[in-house]
């Protein structure tokens, strides 16, 4: 029941993001740059101000006012034309991180060339799906760790995702197990649970892709970097476009936090699991960041 409620909360958050983006200009004009009133947004979403406020608080621990500010910051990035650095810009926009914030440090292991060549022969892949704070999530496990974690979208249904796994590993044994996958997905999105720090990954990718994904793992909660900064961090400062391609093929959402990589202009940019979800991830993480700081 709790998972169902969390799913409904995310659906409302995603709709709110769409509404505010679609009406960003009119909101700014009507309210002279001040965040739209809760009642106005609630009216657009066909819900009550009370329900909307309670949803924000339960979902990410932030108030609707903070939510509005977060979205305005994203909109403001498009208007930035000064010579300030990305670091200065993200700091002024309230996107700086704290050393005390939960930091995912995952064990990282690549599939060997032999494992890839054998197409999953003699391997067991356990798959399943469950609700997360960001909608339905699909997960695939090997005996060495998490191989895939993706969010449902209009294009990516569970059946499509399952077929892609089967095509990648046609000789593997595919086992569906709710008893294994549902608790694991719950653990992944419970940032108060330090077991998350010990979740291993078992990934398939080129050496360059693996290098980029490894760099992403070290991005703390709430911290943002540009593609250029990621390229520089792996010793290839001129490879920002190649870094972008590697990020776009990231097979493990959230744990390899490609949603924390933004454009050099400061805009959030696209996300393979829908741009609204990327914004929602940022809002949720900002709420968790604030909660961690207040608790320290």
What is the topology?
Layout: H1 2-22, H2 24-30, H3 38-44, H4 49-60, H5 64-77, H6 86-92, E1 107-110, H7 113-117, E2 124-132, E3 135-141, E4 146-151, H8 158-168, E5 173-176, H9 178-188, E6 200-203, H10 207-217, E7 225-226, H11 227-233, H12 240-248, E8 261-262, H13 275-295
Helix pairs in contact: 1-4, 1-13, 11-12
In short:
Helices cover 48% and strands 13% of the residues.
Account of the protein in words:
With 296 residues, this protein is an alpha/beta fold. 48% of the residues lie in helices and 13% in strands. The chain has 13 helices and eight strands. The strands form three sheets. Strands 4-3-2-5 form a four-stranded mixed β-sheet, sandwiched between helices. A hairpin with a 2-residue loop joins strand 2 (124-132) and strand 3. Helix 1 (2-22) packs across helix 4 (49-60), helix 1 (2-22) packs across helix 13 and helix 11 packs across helix 12 (240-248). The two termini are 31 Å apart.
- Uncertain residue segments: 28-34, 77-105
Kindly report how far apart the N and C termini lie. 31 Å
The main sheet orders its strands as 4-3-2-5
Mean pLDDT figure: 78
What spatial form do the alpha-carbon principal axes imply? globular
Features:
296 residues; alpha/beta; four-stranded mixed beta sheet; two-stranded parallel ribbon; 13 helices; 48% helix
């Amino acid at each position: 029941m709790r998972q169902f409620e969390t799913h409904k909360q995310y659906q409302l958050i995603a709709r709110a993001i769409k509404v505010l983006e679609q009406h960003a200009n009119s909101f700014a004009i009507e309210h002279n740059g001040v965040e739209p009133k809760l009642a106005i947004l609630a009216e657009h979403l066909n819900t009550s101000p009370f329900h909307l406020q309670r949803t924000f608080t339960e979902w990410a621990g932030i108030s609707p006012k903070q939510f509005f500010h977060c979205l305005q910051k994203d909109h403001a990035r498009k208007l930035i034309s000064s010579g300030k650095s990305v670091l200065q810009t993200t700091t002024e926009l309230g996107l700086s991180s704290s050393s005390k914030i939960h930091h995912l440090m995952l064990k990282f292991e690549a599939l060997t060339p032999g494992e890839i060549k054998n197409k999953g022969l003699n391997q067991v892949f356990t798959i399943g799906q469950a609700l997360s704070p960001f909608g339905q999530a699909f997960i695939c496990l090997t005996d060495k760790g998490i191989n895939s974690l993706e969010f449902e979208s209009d294009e990516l249904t569970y059946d499509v995702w399952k077929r892609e796994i089967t095509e990648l590993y046609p000789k593997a044994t595919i086992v569906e197990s709710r008893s294994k996958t549902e608790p694991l997905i719950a653990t992944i999105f419970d940032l108060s649970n330090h077991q998350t720090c010990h979740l291993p990954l078992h990934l398939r990718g080129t050496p360059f892709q693996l290098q980029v994904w490894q760099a992403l793992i070290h991005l703390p909660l709430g911290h943002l970097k540009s593609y250029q900064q990621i390229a520089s961090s792996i010793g290839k400062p001129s490879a920002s476009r190649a870094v972008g391609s590697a990020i776009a093929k990231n097979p493990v959402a959230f744990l390899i936090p490609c949603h924390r990589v933004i454009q050099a202009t400061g805009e959030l940019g696209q996300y393979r699991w829908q741009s609204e979800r990327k914004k929602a991830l940022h809002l949720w993480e900002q709420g968790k960041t604030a909660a961690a700081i207040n608790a320290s």
